[in-house]
Amino acid sequence: MNTVAKYSAIGAAIAVVAGLGITWFASTRVANDDIFAQCRSSVVAGGTGQIGGPFTLTDENGKTVTDKDVITEPSIIYFGYTYCPDVCPLDSARNAEAVAILEGRGYSVTPIFISVDTARDTPETLRAFTELMSPKMIGLTGTPEQIRQASQEYRTYFKVQDPGDPYTLIDHSTQSYLVFPKIGFVEYFNRDTTPEQMADKVGCFVDAWKKAGETAESGN
To answer: What is the dihedral of CA 33, 34, 38, 43, to 10 degrees?
Structure first.
């Protein structure tokens, strides 16, 4: 190997090592900056900031509310509809049970049900549904535009199969979203997550959230 080639090879090796070092430092820093790193089990393409955002809807009492009005503590958001024959009641009951388990452990979490059925889910209909599920559950509806906007913010999907049929079914995604005041979305849960698993995971996130808040206060 001539001298030029030798030093070129050494330089390339140094660049690779330096690049790996920068990558390791960056990934370590991201992990260290993430107060929920030890709790996460899902990965969101582009980061958690890609999911969630502001919305203006109507609650089950007919009052216009924003996300800041309803997300006042750790909350679990689900998009569905009350006429759903199976999936929505089961998922909502699971979320309600997880909230009840958490309450028994000393955690306060609010389940939120956002209807994608603007034609049939009136505030009164939602109130009957949420009261059946949990005394803490908040039901939200709105205009087609408002619901579409909220759905887009949370990257959910829904499609009315036959808009002219009063008994139509609605295709929709079934993830539940854990959100915090000011922070927003932090984690999602699939349908196969049990109430106990959800409670354990949410408890981890709430503990980390509270610890970060205490650390921030002590630093002031």
So the answer is: -130
Percent of residues in the chain assigned helix, strand, coil, to nearest 5:
45, 20, 35
Distance CA 204, CA 41 (A): 11
Burial of residue 122, with CB atoms counted within 10 A of its CB: 0-12 exposed, 13-18 middle, 19 or more buried: middle
pLDDT in tens, 163-202: 989 999 999 999 999 999 999 999 999 999 999 999 999 9
| Cα Rg, the chain, nearest whole Å | 22
Residue 172 in marked binding region: yes
Domain 52-219 has CATH 3.40.30.10: yes
Tokens of 1: 């190997």
What's the CA dihedral at 21, 24, 26, 27 to 10 degrees?
A: 170
Instruction: State yes or no: 204 annotated in a binding site.
Output: no
Task: Give CA–CA dist 57/150, Å, rounded.
Answer: 9
Above 90 in pLDDT, residue 132? yes
> pLDDT tens digit string along 2-20?
544 444 444 444 444 444 4
Taking the CB of residue 173, how many other CB atoms lie within 10 A of it? 15
By the 10 Å C-beta count (0-12 exposed, 13-18 middle, 19+ buried), 154 is classed as buried
93 is in an annotated binding site: no
